[in-house]
Amino acid sequence: MSSSETSSDNSSHSSSEVQAKKTRKRRRTKKKVVKNPSFKVMIYKALCTTRSKKGLSRPAIVNYLQENWELSNVWRYHFNKTLADLVEDECVYQTKQHFVLDEDEREEFKGKGKRKRRNTKTKKKKNTKGKKKGKGKGKGKGKGKGKGKGKGKGKGKGKGKGKGKKKGKKKN
Question: Where does this protein have compositionally biased stretches of type Low complexity (predicted)?
Fold first, then answer.
């Protein structure tokens, strides 16, 4: 009987050790969760802070991200993929090795945090009365003061009334 008691003690002891090892492994595999905005938002913020027309280089963007946010272990893959997607969608333009945020995207991104202004101008009331029937000024051929070919200001570059350079063959 003593042999059966020792075998039962060994089996119970070994099973508790196995369970303890499993729980230790579970504790070790927990990853540190980092709460950050999406990489798109982080890249937009980095590009909005610059006032250079040239934009920011990839290492400069990375430095900005590392200074302002705590990045996870696999951040480099997500950063490169997001930046490539933004360039492909034409939200960010790449000139040589620098990245510049599109003007529309910049205004839209900056406007998110700000409150929209109310329109303080009064709206003009439309005429609710019916339109007068009769002869009106139409767009037909007639003697009206309308936009047409005739005397008037042209789209010339000069200030005076003189004619500009004529294009064509020169006369000797």
Answer: 1-16
Q: Where are the alpha helices (DSSP H) in the chain?
A: 2-29, 39-49, 58-68, 75-88, 103-113
- Neighbouring CB atoms inside 10 A of 91's CB total 19
Q: How many CB atoms lie within 10 A of CB 101?
A: 23
CATH of the domain at 65: 1.10.10.10
Q: Do 98 and 56 meet the contact criterion of CB atoms below 8 Å apart? A: yes
Q: Tell me the pLDDT tens digit for each residue of 42-67.
A: 888 888 887 778 889 999 999 998 89
Tokens of 162: 């003189």
In a domain, 120, yes or no: no
Return phi, psi of residue 107, to 5°. Answer: -65, -40
Number of domains in the chain: 1
- Note the pTM of the prediction, 2 decimals: 0.45
In whole angstroms, give the CA distance from residue 85 to residue 99.
13
Residue 64's region, left for phi above 0, alpha for psi from -120 to 50, else beta, is alpha
The one-letter amino acid at 45: K
